[in-house]
Design goal:
Radius of gyration: 30 Å
CATH superfamily of the largest domain: von Willebrand factor, type A domain
Distance between the termini: 60 Å
Number of strands: 20
CATH topology of the largest domain: Rossmann fold
Oligomer: single chain
Largest sheet: 6 strands, mixed
Number of helices: 23
Number of domains: 5
Length: 614
Amino acid sequence: MVAGTVQLLRGTYPFTAVVGQDQVKKALLCAAISKEIKGVLITGPAGTAKSTVVRSLRSVLPGLSMHNLPLNVSEDRLVGGIDVDHAIKHGEKRYQAGILKEVDGGLLYLDEINLFEDHIIQRVLDAMEGGENRVEREGVSGTHDCDFGLVGTMDPAEGAMSSHLLDRFDICVSMDSITDRDRRIEVLRRRLLHESSPEDLVSCHSEEILGLMEDLEEAEGRLPCVIFPDAFYETVSLLTMEMGVQGHRGDMAVVRTARALAALDRRDQVCLDDLQEAASMCLQHRRRDREEEAERSPQTEEQNPEPGEEKEQEEDVWQPPQSDRRERADGDREDIFSIGDPFVVIDYLKPADKRVDMGKRRGKRGSSVRSDLPGRCTSFRIPRGEVNDIALVPTLRAAAPYQVQRRREDVAIVLESSDFREKVRVSKNGTTIMFLVDASGSMGARRRMVTVKGAILSLLKDAYQKRDSVGLMAFRKGSAELLLPPTKSVDLAYSRLREMPTGGRTPLALGLSKAAHMLSSDRLGKEDDMVMVIVSDGKANVPLDGGDAFADTLEVASKASALPIRFVVVDTGSGYPRLDRAQRLARALGGAYFRLEDLNADRLAHSIRMAVHG
């Protein structure tokens, strides 16, 4: 029996040889025995064996047909389209199925799923949930069953997935790096043994593999009879509501997964432990309670006063503990504020406030659709003029049905101008975001700097994931200083932000002029998208040439509006009556405008990102 197992699993890494990662393995086994569970997503840093554990499923599921979806797959190859060979031979259009037909009854694996185009993931999820693939395109139609399991893996550092796509995965679990010394040694030993002698590794785990095979077979037969107690429905509902889970997919996923866990544990009824474990697998990627708590309690440096103590009413008088105050020889006061708590900037935050002027909406961040430059081909279209980049397969498909009528003589296929299709390519452009920050005394008095610093650092981390660059220029007293050239270094950003002082007057015109000049000069010879985020109340009081300081600012803004830079103005003003200088500045720049008083650090970063990237 052992010899047969070794032969069967030749070249496959044994599922039971994966060290640790119990929750990930249990999630995969739940999906293996329950067709009701729709999709498993595994996240984790590079090198944590995400792909290894998915592919090792074949060691405990004999006969499993696993298909790895290529990252550059076209929609035609995925869902199917016209049968070109039949069309050429017979002049008839006929549907030819794609990968979704081939994977029927098996497992579809999407490695680096967050790098796929959203519409590809959407088609896969639609087919999996509906159990059917229906195609109506290019004059052909076809329908076939789609009964398959879905597993995706991703490294969050390479970019996040949108919230609506995440919600469609019943289970989302994380693979973390192993920090225990003995377990890391065991990982190394097993991996090296597999590379040198895979049969020996399988032999070492053959009994565990055979035992798990029997357990899975028994659990699959037991699952339909597993009881979910009525009292637990209320528990699930209360839990999902408390965590802010939107929709009902999370509730249903918890129930399905809890039943699968009970079956795997050879029980006929779900217990509370099953419910808790299922909630951990099914709700973490859907939870919104932390975001709502952040909106209710903005991240400021304020602390609630002790009973009987009165809180200072004047913001200029109140002094939080995270400020290093120093007096200069010239009498000016400087404060060096700490950086607000950093946070993860994720793509599945709530939509931006509708009051924000979003401007022209753009496509996926850092991408532009081109037909004349190198890039990844995502689709095709009928040419609008001269054909620069022929899409060969779509062109052949368009010409195929007419070959019977055309005189081909000695050529295999005849093309006419109406047949041509050209490629639509998506090329990734970098984005450089320059924060122009008012570091004058008023910013310190209103305690904006802690929040702004936290948002900038967090956006830098987000930029690292999106391969963008973020810089920082501060204006105060009589100068504007570039504190942080465009960079992707989080460590460098942290040190510069931490040391940035606050105090003095407000040379807004000078800061705007210098920042615009720097961005426009840096753009020469680049395809990068340049963005300037101005954080100020607009109350300039240092003129350029002895005139009116705000008039100088509007004049500089008017000239800057002609530059290939997009502008976002964050109004830090407060109190009544409220001046409209920041809003007038945004109009002069032709940029987006919104206020700061309703935003905490999370909302600030999200609103800026939405205004910048649409």
